[in-house]
Prior knowledge:
By secondary structure, the protein is mainly alpha-helical. The protein has helices at residues 20-48, 51-78, 89-110, 114-117, 125-154, 158-185, 193-203, 237-243, and strands spanning 209-219, 222-231, 250-259. The protein starts with 19 loop residues before the first helix and ends with a strand.
Amino acid sequence: xxxxxxxxxxxxxxxxxxxxxxxxxxxxxxxxxxxxxxxxxxxxxxxxxxxxxxxxxxxxxxxxxxxxxxxxxxxxxxxxxxxxxxxxxxxxxxxxxxxxxxxxxxxxxxxxxxxxxxxxxxxxxxxxxxxxxxxxxxxxxxxxxxxxxxxxxxxxxxxxxxxxxxxxxxxxxxxxxxxxxxxxxxxxxxxxxxxxxxxxxxxxxxxxxxxxxxxxxxxxxxxxxxxxxxxxxxxxxxxxxxxxxxxxxxxxxxxxxxxxx
Length: 261
């Protein structure tokens, strides 16, 4: 009998599709096309004042992001994701701690003092989106540090992956809260019922009655109001606007006066 090696008794554990390499290349090409078109549409929209172009460019960015996930899946499949990879704790833990420090400093710099002083109406949602993003990153960094320390102390390597999944859940939860806050502004939902009640109290004097009232936020700390006043004794719109002058945050006021016979 001829001498046999271990290679005679083993086999490859790669189960990639027949066209794996070709499909991966095509996916990358499409990502490049989407990214280039995204830049062109957003740039063109800003340059030429077209919201439609900007919207389509942002929509194209979601395509590029989704395709990037597909490309990463192809790459991970080639590297056998299921194979055990040792964790270099001595190098990984300091990097995670540094990431936590950077995110905490960033969150402090982006903190909006108006949150405590004036409430939700004065929030800059753009700044808050950045703040929530880095705060979520800080939470994920904490989970990463805890996961790495626990994995090293008890040899629970699975803790590293568990903390990564928990971090994703944290980001998803905070993102949903931000989406809800922005959603109130975009469809012109009434920002504060208390302001609406105060407007009615100031306008409804004597025979003056508010027949219609629309209130919406137009910017951080700025609200617009359109009101129709029905009365037996009509006054100039300026008189009604003066009644509302003491209410903070009313930056654009339109009053329509109708005589009631």
